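User: Can you help me understand a structure? I only have the sequence.
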Amino acid sequence: MNGLELRAIVLGSGAGGGVPQWNCRCRVCRLAWSGDLRVRHRTQSSLAVSVDGDRWLLLNASPDLRRQITDTPALHPRGEDRQSPIVAVLPTNADVDHVAGLLTLRERQPLVLHATRSTLDTLAANRIFDVLAADVVERRAVGLGEVFEPLPGLSIELFAVPGKVPLWLEEGDVVTDLVGEGTVGVAVEGGGRRLLYVPGCARMTPSLEARIAAAHVVLFDGTLFDDEEMIREGLGTKTGRRMGHMPMTGPGSSTEAFAAFAGVRKIFVHINNSNPALIEGSPEADRIDAAGWDVAFDGMEIVA
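Assistant: Let's start by predicting it. Here is the structure, written out as tokens:
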């Protein structure tokens, strides 16, 4: 197809809870609550992609989805009756901040819900998601490595990345870098361009390196600035890796792992409210910029 251009809109650039988090007065959230312009408000992780600007696929459906739609004119309904340019949704796992927004899409709007069998089984086990009426919302299982077109001219492939089960499904000893259907990255291709969306990843792998080398743009897990961030700030007892996320900096970090990919545009997404790189002009933000990365913000538009 001719005249197609791969476009993406960052609907939500924050991790679970967004920025500022509703109950938080950490360093970053204090600045956000006070209206300091160095910290942008951010909703929870989601991306919209299209090749024609008319029909859109959502990658993840965050709890903030209704606000994200109202803030994004490209996703507004058109015509006289009920209609939406959102024609398909693909959650990358069953985390609350990636599937709770599906409940926003319950007003009998025809669309296709694509996901791994693992994620679909998790949704099927929770009957609240049955508000997505089966006669108008098709649930379509997608296998790893399967290439499909949710929209004409837009091809998608899911691939496994190391991660863990959703927090609300944790039991006993938790494997934090399990490779399987539980956590996936998304390879998006259209108009001759390739974009990778990986909002959650516990560590780099050779197969992921190969995919990054072949991409034009990568949106990658930027949850924490360093592995001990939550503990140091008194916000939790878990390291970033225990939470299933590579840190931005330090040994085995994403900035270290991506250093060889100078020709790829690199953008951090899924950024936790505790992350000091969210403070524009801070030493941490400058360090990320010097490493060749952009920090995503809500409403950021990307032409791959």
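Now, to help you interpret it: Residues 247 and 253 are 5 Å apart (CA to CA). Residues 7-303 form a domain with the Metallo-beta-lactamase; Chain A fold (CATH 3.60.15.10). Let me know which part you'd like to focus on.
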